[in-house]
Amino acid sequence: MESALLKSIIFSQHEIIRNEEIVPRDYQFAPNDNYVLVGMRRAGKTMILHEIVQKLIKNGVDWSQIIYINFEDERLQQMTINEFNDIVVVANELSDEKSYFFFDEIQNIDGWESFARRMADDHQRVYITGSNSKMMSSEIIGKLGGRYMMKLITPYNLKEFLTAKNIQHDEAALYTNSLLAKIKAATDDYLHNGGLPERLTQLDVRDYLTNIYQNIYLGDIIRRNSVRNKKSLSLLITKIAQTVMHEISYNGLVKAVKSTGNTISVPSAMDYVDFAREAFLLFDIKNFAAKFSERESLPKFYFQDNGILNLFLFQKDSILLENIVAIALYNRFSEDLYYLHSKKTGIDIDFYLPNKHTAIQVSWMVDEFSSERELGNLIKLAKNDSNIQKLYIITMEQEQTITQNDVRIELVSLYKFLLKMAW
Q1: What are the DUF4143 domain coordinates in residue numbering (predicted)?
Q2: Which of 224, 293, 322, 345 is the most exposed place for a label (fewest CB within 10 A)?
Q3: How far apart are CA 176 and CA 188, in angstroms?
């Protein structure tokens, strides 16, 4: 590959990074480690790399030492693994000092793992991003030989979202009426439009999110996996959006797609769901009460971003509320997060954290119509499971402590849950 082309790409990126206004994220990076950042597209991985570059420059590193390559640049479409070393050659031409390498969306080049491993073995400082969960697979980690730290990058959490909007959200703000009003309004925005960083700068948020979903997520899934039955894939994801809050089998998803006159098999549906997971569009949680062999067959699906989910809904705030709670819990607890639906005891719990001895229900508001389900299930669980220590109901705005049958249940508003969750 011509060095002039690589230098043009590198210098173009320098100009972009110089002019970018960075919103700090809640991620820490050790100065002597190499990193692979993975996560859904538009979640902010590139901005984090730009933030790292700006900090290096502030600490005395020269721009000539910054080798930043965005592999989504159309000029690199024909690049192969055999041309990777040209990047190192160009880096040596630009500076005699130590270089810092930033490779954005490197998974676009087959065989990138071997080059990344060699760079680390040569004691180079390397930062990599990718938007496919396969980059976190044991196979890729094995090929990298333990030379890289893996970090999952998600859309803004509420704290980051408020920071990006310049809204004070410390302890004092929660007790100041004018600031609290801003926090609540921003929380409602976050609930309905999600936390993708770029959407904060858009005049038409829904149009932006529609474009991102159609062209980036759905298009990316189709392109990467050579999906031929595009209509059935789209309908499957739509059906999953409509079943958030509820467990559903793959047979049920197939039946729903077929009811529209489109063809799909159970194996294809399972593949399509895997593709959506790999793109970080969806995640799922399993039923803790189910037998191990049955846990995979009847999951509850959620979307990684509320703004994308809301494209499929119409005035379904209760679904958005449960999904945003699921995102916060999944990002923090991941494999320790379950739902609990027991046919034997009749207990139905939205979120169950066995290692934290915690059970959580989600309800827009607790009134005479919903209290029996929300409170009753938690009380029943507390009586049946002596390990449970914390019982919560996450609501949109209610805050209250309820004690029934010697069982203490905390009603927590969404903004407080998202800002102060520390267990």
Answers
A1: 220-360
A2: 293
A3: 18
